[in-house]
Amino acid sequence: MWLYLAAFVGLYYLLHWYRERQVVSHLQDKYVFITGCDSGFGNLLARQLDARGLRVLAACLTEKGAEQLRGQTSDRLETVTLDVTKMESIAAATQWVKEHVGDRDGGLTLLPRLKCSGAIIAHCSTELLGSSDPLASASQNAGITGLWGLVNNAGILTPITLCEWLNTEDSMNMLKVNLIGVIQVTLSMLPLVRRARGRIVNVSSILGRVAFFVGGYCVSKYGVEAFSDILRREIQHFGVKISIVEPGYFRTGMTNMTQSLERMKQSWKEAPKHIKETYGQQYFDALYNIMKEGLLNCSTNLNLVTDCMEHALTSVHPRTRYSAGWDAKFFFIPLSYLPTSLADYILTRSWPKPAQAV
Length: 358
Ligand SMILES: NC(=O)c1ccc[n+]([C@@H]2O[C@H](COP(=O)([O-])OP(=O)(O)OC[C@H]3O[C@@H](n4cnc5c(N)ncnc54)[C@H](OP(=O)(O)O)[C@@H]3O)[C@@H](O)[C@H]2O)c1
Known about the structure:
Structural class: alpha/beta
Radius of gyration: 23 Å
Bound molecules: NADP nicotinamide-adenine-dinucleotide phosphate
């Protein structure tokens, strides 16, 4: 009996492993657009996919970030500047992507940019070439029409505080970048992804599964989860697959120790008097130390996250959700299935008591 059970479980994992290892073909012809490539996961993913031979279209917030990335990658990788909070910037980036991946839906423009020894050999109009154009068919056959992958990675976390003393502007900014930005970029690029029957990878957070601290950030990531789930169900018949990546705590620009602690101090300093009286300086100091310890414990192995992103883009069978990092897998995900009261206790047991606690 136990032997049969063990054999059944073993077989299940073997099949699962085999299924997960299957990789899509023609990777070198596939375009992947990634937001937030100046630093952190986006930057590493851009370099990782470039090294694997994919055609990376990397969006950076700043020209300086773009220049640095170009300096570290092959000629195949191209960059564009993109601020996901600005509609005109998203529209310009979408047009730029269209020009790279080929656009046949517009009726007037056909822009298969085929590279031959690094040179652009075709940049044509449908009116001139018609649908039987050999370059267009070549590009289609090679599978480079449309955008294979869109990775919504750009995000901010500022500052680390409680809901009550997080100012409205900071909350709004997090929503604008982390949620509205993801929605707008996705909707803008969706026709191109649909054409390629490609992939959308949305970077959420484990704080999009268990809301815990930094209110505005968690709200934005819960929004990313909801948007991704809704879109996956709505567009299931178009062959587009959507994956959500939920990293635990990692050391990146976002979790930079000095900056994070400085911002935390600043937001406490700027908090209204009644907040300071309600919580008290001791509360803040204790919370500050908890945060400091948390930031110190962030994982430095960013590949745990970018490998999930890469799998979502290159596997024949991408997962719907990826939890990246040991804390995500072994603490937050199990916690998310516990009764809420028990999860509340576990998450806040080490927190200090506010000065005016009852
Ligand atoms: N680090 C973690 O522990 C962690 C955990 C869970 C989820 N995440 C998520 O992972 C994603 C990447 O973050 P990260 O940890 O790699 O942090 P990061 O190093 O700060 O990377 C975020 C990137 O987004 C860019 N960005 C900021 N505002 C933007 C805007 N308005 N438009 C376009 N790009 C913008 C940043 O540019 P600049 O560098 O020029 O500011 C940066 O390149 C985020 O969605 C984040 O929420 C991170």
